[in-house]
């Protein structure tokens, strides 16, 4: 595609023939998990913690419930302040008088300290009429007692509250860190999920389609779990591990779920990233716990998804010294899968998108004996996948799954499931009772080309976009061996102002030089058309140039399609080395690569310009039709351009 862009259940008895090394004999029904140990630390550490909390409570209680400090003043000073109208209120209990001055008064002990709260003692021999004096000077005589201890509720809140709060915080912290009430001891517990069919509905091999080779490999594993003596009587052993490798969305996890549904044995699933924790040694402890649980209920299956998170090759550039938690976890997995104790009865299934970065020790026989590559489905496989995903979708009579499968080359199971879902949503928006072929086609356009954008383009911009897309399309029609043009549109979609959709009639697995050069020429058709018609170029060819440069560089550096470089691969196909300056390409070779890339692109651009100049009338006809209709389908586009459509060879 080229575009012009804008800037179930547990078994009740173990099958005969199984042996689990390192595990005590037990009744089949005894699968009780050992009790969770208590919180970490010994008894004295908890006594010390409680004592510290008690002292902390006393300090908090004394600070929060301490009465406001009062300065002691002589009785004579108190009488003088009353006569000076500087006493606001007093409270008396016996001969003890407490009160408040209106203005701060210096302390008799330290003149630099002033306060408004005071306390004094009335002499027992005093004969003055104090009450009358206070009334004469407007002093408020309170009925409240002098400073007393705080109420009981305050003593409870401020005395026990901090301890209760701290104990609650510690409990929450231990529970979160250990994911169990057992506290920190839960850090070493595995977080593997026991597979339980949702609503009694199990995933079986009937739900897996389009990847028959991989399914056959796993069907043999299931058969061995159900009938072990069939194989062991001849001296054979089942693979300890099966590695599922393939691009994202091809159905690796679905295959594992189907094995769980078909085998009818305990199935534990866990993501590789869940082994790693911030505490050192937790990953290895979780690996040990997971295999112990699996061996107790053997035969059983362990599924580890995205194993490359912990299974990357050791000793590479990423290992910069020191303790590596990931490597320790990997070492424990290697030991559990093929160590001295053994793990007979436990089969490990793992999935990854990057088998090339895994440690060689993980892939050797005795661990992952089998490597099953889950490839993208071919046309027949896509047809079967569509049948699976449309079992519960009401289809109209005009739906042709063969045609849909033919128009979706390169799509994997996840893409096709999304296509069916988008078609169903489109039909629902249109209030259809069934999903029609048009709903599928519109959903495919939305996924492949992008969602339509409602933007206003000027007349000049719209015309330039029409010529740009016509250049792509015309070269796609005229270039020998190029993928047929399926659709041309100048309706903005996603980031593109227009799109030209090309797809092959059949799946391709290898590409020759002429096909790749045709791809480059077609991608440069938009820029060439703008230069021919307007004499200038715009930024609309940005995405085209990225595609062109990538194809040319791969031709030169990886596929040996350059006479100057020769049949040598000089471009790495992995990202294991994080330091690009460590590559083994010499400066001279790098310069030669750049020169060859430039030569290929220049030759292809010259061919694109020459072809469009020779067929200028066809270019103009396509552009005018696009300006009028905005979208041209395959048959209509070939008819307007006057180019015969080459029918694909009969299968």
Give a quick summary of the entry.
The protein has 651 residues and is α/β, with parallel strands linked by helices. It contains 21 helices and 15 strands.
Based on secondary structure, the structural category is alpha/beta
Proportion of residues in β-strands:
5-15%
Strands, count: 15
Q: What coarse outline follows from CA principal-axis ratios?
A: elongated
CATH fold category name of the largest domain: Methane Monooxygenase Hydroxylase, Chain G, domain 1
Distance between the termini: 25 Å
Radius of gyration: 41 Å
Helix content: 40-55%
CATH C-level label of the largest domain: Mainly Alpha
Counting DSSP H or I runs of 4 or more residues, the number of helices is: 21
Mean pLDDT over all positions: 78
Strand order, biggest sheet?
7-9-10-11-8-12
Task: Catalogue the unreliable spans.
Answer: 7-41, 179-185, 574-582
> By CATH's scheme, which homologous superfamily of the largest domain applies?
Peptidase M41
Major sheet size, sense and barrel closure: 6 strands, mixed
Count of spatially separate domains: 5
CATH architecture annotation of the largest domain: Up-down Bundle
